[in-house]
Every structure is written in structure tokens, then in C-alpha cells.
User: Fold this.
Amino acid sequence: MQRNRVRRVVIAGGGTAGWMAAAALSRTLGKYIDITLVESDDIGTVGVGEATIPTLLTFHRLIDINEQEFMAATHATIKLGIQFENWRHVGHTYFHSFGTTGRDHWSAGFQHFWLKGRERGLAGEYGEYCLELSAAMQGRFSHLPNNGINYAYHLDSTRYAQFLRRFSERYGLRRVEGVIEEVAMAENGDIQALVLNDGTRIEGDLFIDCTGFRALLIGKALGVEYEDWSHWLLTDSAIAVQTESVRDPVPYVRCIAGGADWQWRIPLQHRAGNGIVYASRYMDDDTARKILMNTIEGVPRTEPRLIRFKPGQRKRCWERNCVALGLASGFLEPLESTNIHLIQRGITRLLQAFPEIVNQVEIDEYNSRMREDLEHVRDFVVLHYHVTDRRDTGFWRECAEMSVPSSLRHVIDLFAETGKVYNLTNQLFAENSWIQVMMGQGITPRHRHPAPDLMGDPELKRFLDAISGSVSNTVSRLPAHMDYIRSYCPMK
Ligand code: FAD
Assistant:
């Protein structure tokens, strides 16, 4: 059977993945193709996923989303990074910030100069050389000229889906409410149509599976296997609860590690999102719920909700005429908030690869590029668990002692020996992120680049002080984060 030209795109599911795909496709290709999104209010969405990373700004620019309207509608606040508490050892805190730390020299990364400065007693804390980190710690924010401050958002995911729905409908997207009961297959093995509970049949040339963990198209109908990564990522359960705000929101997420778990705190304009992520082999649901409910601040606005997941990935995200995005394509775990980014990466790659007629070469290219992204993100997340001084519970001992992917082993060994991180320019997490987390989790490089030795103490001190002075100067002129939000994008 010949494949048709791609004229009808059907999106199954209306969570964050479905509506981001709908917004991007209708805004860019809406005049050329028919787009239909099917969702079911009865089934609902996963309802979490509220911390983002700076690449979301690029996505919004690509499709012309007005930032003030978006932030007001989703009750968003600013995120400048993540504070990790108790990850290296109980009582220790470090920060993974967006942006860059220090200034690179022609010869070597800033960390080499900082390490030498520490040896000589000339350097302050690593974070003093990072604008975003210093601003986060002082609870300040403002936009700066020339994108001078790197940031992302905390957002209300239900409101985000509603916002993107209004946006997409302006560009001609058709929304159908109903439960998908059957995925009808064509003779050649492609998907032909979605059949809803009222008998409606929605035919398409290309289908986008955004049905969340159900993976109705890519998993159930097409049988693409799931690759289990739980030997590297031990957590498999989460409980989420929303609370009333008790103070002005800070511009960062807190990730607080426990004995076999970690908790998130995501502050929005009107409330906070809280949750506990844990390994069910080491902690039962009741214990996790008690830890969460005993440590949250503020009155709960929702019942605590249990979510199970299996860390891993579909072997192929694009199979035949179906592309899976979001949870349908896989899920690592919430740490470092990478899933919305991976949705966006999948959408932009799909837009670039948008086929006139679905073909296997394009599918293979897409799958291998997505695979690279995923393995990079997986390695970065595993790093947080594996490099730790913690040995106080079975969970942490297993994390510290497990064998990790060889790609991650290489980055860790190289940094531990030389203080260098290479070749990450096209990757989501660049040098600044890896260095902050590796040092934060406790690696001090054994050697460093000799370039700083070319500087005498006075020159090195001038170099370091100029950077920290400029950072503290800029931060002192920024308004309080929440004052800025109140004037820039008060919630609607
Ligand atoms: P869902 O939100 O589950 O949407 C699925 C859609 O499919 C729904 O509309 C549903 O109604 C529809 N559907 C399903 N079956 C049918 C059917 N039979 N008929 C019709 N419709 C159907 N990501 C981040 O980037 N940052 C974070 O901070 C973050 N935190 C997370 C915390 C936890 C505990 C978890 C589990 C995930 C987190 N994620 C995070 C991931 C993030 O939540 C998801 O990537 C994001 O919400 C996208 O979900 P989705 O759209 O794929 O699925």
C-alpha cells in the first residue's frame, strides 16, 4: 500500500506534550496541513511537570508566544537553577545554576583559574562568579539587555495546557473531546485512524502519540518495546501535592534528598508544587507519604497523588507513521526537569524533518538523534546519584556502587583527573552544568590546566575579582524577584 502525502496530522492526548505539539504544528504548518487533537477530560493528565529549563524560551520564541501573557496565564515565576540539599552528604548544599560561571580564558575553562585561586587563597566560593546563582541566592531577578541573564520558568501545567489550547485554536487546530477506544490499523501496518467511544473515526496520515504513560499508539498498537533503565535510575514512584504559598516564591527549585528519596519544592505565584520521588524497593508508599506531608509548608490544596513510572525509553520514538512525545516516549525521572525539554526537542526535530511522505530514512535519522539527546540527559541525571559521599542507606550505597554507562564513566574520570569537560556544545547540559554538579557532588580534580600558572598572584586575583565584582554589582541592582513578577506579569 502506497503512503499518502502528509496532509492530516492527528495528535492523541492533550497533556503538556499534546498541546505543545499542537501549538508548534498549528503555528508553523497550520496553513498547509489539517491538525486534530483528541483528548479526554474524563481521563485527565498526569498533572505534574512544572519546572522547566531555559530552552523553553527558545520554543516560545519560535512560535511567537508573548512572554508576559504566558507568565500571567500560567501563574509562572522565574527559575534560575536548582538547589541540591543533602545530595553529597546530609547537611551539604550546592546549586546548579543556569548561565555560565566565570569567564573562559583562551587556554582553559574558568574552573582551572578558580582551582588555582583556591589553592592560593585568592578565590571565593565558585558561585560568586555566576550571575544567575548569585541572583537566585539573593532572591532577585530582572530581564537584562542582550539576554544577559539565563532563566527558565516554574509554571502551572494545567494552565499551560489551557493557554496552549487557546493559542493553537487561533491557528485553526481542531480539538475533539472523547475517549480513544481503538487504534485502527491499515493493511501495511501503519496506523489508519483513532476510533472514539462514540464511534467517531479520526483518520490521519501522521499520528503523534501524546497519551502519556498509556502509550496507546506507539506501545499498545505498534508494539515498540520499552527499554528499562531502572538499573541506573532506582526511583520509580512519586507522590505530588499542592500547597498554599507561605512566602514569596524564590527563583529556584529545591531538591532535598532523603534516605531513598528526594523532594521537590516548586514555587508559583499562587501556590507551591511539592512532591516526593522514591525507590519503592527501599521505601513504601505510606512512609513516603508521611515524609512528604510532615515536611511540606503551607496548607494542602489537593489530595496527595501517587504516580508510578518506569525509568527508561522507547526503543524508537518514531515508528511507521507515529511519533511519540512526552511520557508516551519514555521517562527518566523528574530530577533536572528535562522532560518538557525533551518534548520540545522532539517537536523541533519533527518540524525540521517534517516529511512530504513518511519514509524510513527520515525516521532512522530522527530516532538516532533523539537517542543521542536521551542518553546525554540520562547520563547527567545518573551523575547526581552515583557521585556522592552518602553511604548511610542501602539506596545510596547501591547508587554509589552501581556501574554506570561508559559514556558517563568517561566524563567523570576525565574531570576527576584533569578538570576538563569536552565537546558538549550541542548538548543540553553544557560544561557549566557538568562542572557545577560534579564539583557539587564532591569531585575535586586531581590536576588542572597549567595556564593559570602563567599568571602571578596579583594578576590572578585581578582576573577573579573583576568577575565576582561585576556579578555582585549587577545583582545588587536587580529588584526582588516577586516585585518584578508583580509588575511584569501578575497572574490572571
Ligand atoms: P499526560 O499529561 O499524562 O497527558 C496524556 C493525555 O492523553 C491526556 O490528555 C489524556 O487525557 C490523554 N489520553 C490518554 N489516554 C486517552 C484515551 N484513551 N483517550 C483520549 N485521551 C487519552 N517534566 C519537566 O519537564 N519538569 C518537571 O518538573 C517534571 N516533573 C515531573 C514529576 C513527576 C512526578 C512526573 C511523573 C513527571 C514529571 N515531568 C516533569 C514530566 C512531565 O510531567 C511530562 O513530561 C509532561 O507533563 C507531559 O506529559 P504528557 O503530555 O506526555 O502526558
In short: The radius of gyration is 23 Å.
